Amino acid sequence: MLLDDNREIFIPETQEVVKAHPLFRLFATQNPPGAYAGRKMLSRALRNRFVELHFDPLPRFELEVILEQRCSLPASRAHRLVEVMHQLQVH
């Protein structure tokens, strides 16, 4: 489980308390329940351990630019990948 307010975690199997390094950070992502099949609501206790940030989906054009520049894909392939992603999202 994630760390408590003291930045520690207790491991019952070994009876150890592990303290996080001062620079320790954890980043997590989640697809919201209801928008994707098979997703369940997280408990309030778990959600309270995170700072939640919500982002709007990137426009298709921006996704294509990212694929072209970061993955060195030709524009036609980037466009096709984004189209396939969009089709999978709406069906």
Molecular structure report:
- It contains 3 helices and 2 strands; from the N terminus they run ββααα.
- By secondary structure, it is of the alpha+beta class.
- The chain folds into 2 domains: 41 residues, no CATH class; 31 residues, no CATH class.
- The protein has a two-stranded antiparallel sheet.
- A hairpin with a 4-residue loop joins β1 and β2.
- α2 crosses α3.
- The longest helix is centred in the C-terminal third of the chain and has 16 residues.
- InterPro entries: P-loop_NTPase.
- One of its GO terms (molecular function) is ATP binding.
- It comes from Protopolystoma xenopodis.
Structure, briefly:
With 91 residues, the protein is α+β, with helices and mostly antiparallel strands. The protein has a two-stranded antiparallel ribbon with strand order 1-2. The longest helix is centred in the C-terminal third of the chain and has 16 residues.
Which spans have pLDDT < 50 for at least 5 consecutive residues? none
Taken as a percent bin, the fraction of beta residues is 5-15%
Q: Tell me which oligomeric state these chains represent.
A: single chain
Task: Count structural domains.
Answer: 2
Gyration radius (Cα, Å) is: 19 Å
What is the terminal-to-terminal distance? 35 Å
Q: How many β-strand stretches?
A: 2
Helix content: 25-40%
Strand-helix topology:
Layout: E1 8-11, E2 16-19, H1 44-47, H2 60-71, H3 75-90
Antiparallel strand pairs: 1-2
